[in-house]
Amino acid sequence: MQALIAMGHVYMASGELSEMSERRILGGNQHALPADIFSDDVAYVALGHLHLAQQVAKQTRIRYCGSPLPLSLSERHYRHQVLAVTLEGNQLQSVTPHIVPRAVDLWRVPEKASPLDTVLASLAALAPQDLPLAQQPLLDVPVLLDKPQPMLREKILAVLEDKPVRLAKITPHYRETSQDTGFRQQHLSDVEPFQVLRHGWQQKYQGEPDEALSATFSHLLEQLEQDEDQ
Fold first, then answer.
1. Looking at the structure, do residues 91 and 163 belong to the same domain, yes or no?
2. CA distance linking residue 218 with residue 157, whole number of Å
């Protein structure tokens, strides 16, 4: 008998999302599909949508292979891969991961958000390397600030002028005096839609929004994205 293989671009229940590179509107398992939608006679299920390689419901035959390339600077420590699937007759024999070599490194300097003086010193200490532009690492610079810093980008670029790196992102972190202040000081690109909903609900009503409201909010966001894609 010939093996049955299923494919799908779907979000499965309990799927693990990649930080800062996934669309979060389906977070919290809203609209997630259960593993039992795939019958036992399907030998292998190849899934797309989530960026991290993972099994679904601990089943070897149901997998996301993950993105073969980094889609976010947060994936700098993640080893991207492709999967080789071996079938014999109508049965799955093995699934073998193959690590994808990374042509360009992803760096975060310093590793943790630090005051600007410390950040500039860390960047100045980067060792020079003779690398062509296309091979120079992409750099994320986290900075701990008390308030917005004028000329922040210019100061960082000045230190990096002779360094073999490409500045991809400066990530400001602000010292929080309260939970509310910390939320307001985040960059819009770092805030997820559900965070805004949850924050607003907690400020007015306390507690968490109920499941019905969360589901309606998720549906509206999904419709909005579909309209924008058309």
1. no
2. 40
- Per DSSP, helices labelled H in the chain are 116-124, 152-159, 179-184, 193-205, 211-229
Task: Give the burial class of 61: count Cβ atoms within 10 A of its Cβ; 0-12 exposed, 13-18 middle, 19 or more buried.
Answer: buried
Structure-token match 């799927």, residue found: 15
Q: Is there a single domain that holds both residue 17 and residue 116?
A: no
On whether both 22 and 84 belong to a single domain, the answer is: yes
Q: Looking at the 3D structure of the chain, how many domains does it have?
A: 2
Provide the pLDDT confidence category of residue 191 given band limits of 50, 70 and 90: confident
Residues 6+ apart with CB under 8 A from 99: 79, 80, 81
**CB 180, CB 190: distance < 8 Å:** no
Per-residue pLDDT reduced to its tens digit, 81-111: 999 999 999 999 999 999 999 989 999 999 9
List, for residues 135-167, the tens digit of each pLDDT value: 999 999 999 988 778 899 999 999 999 999 999
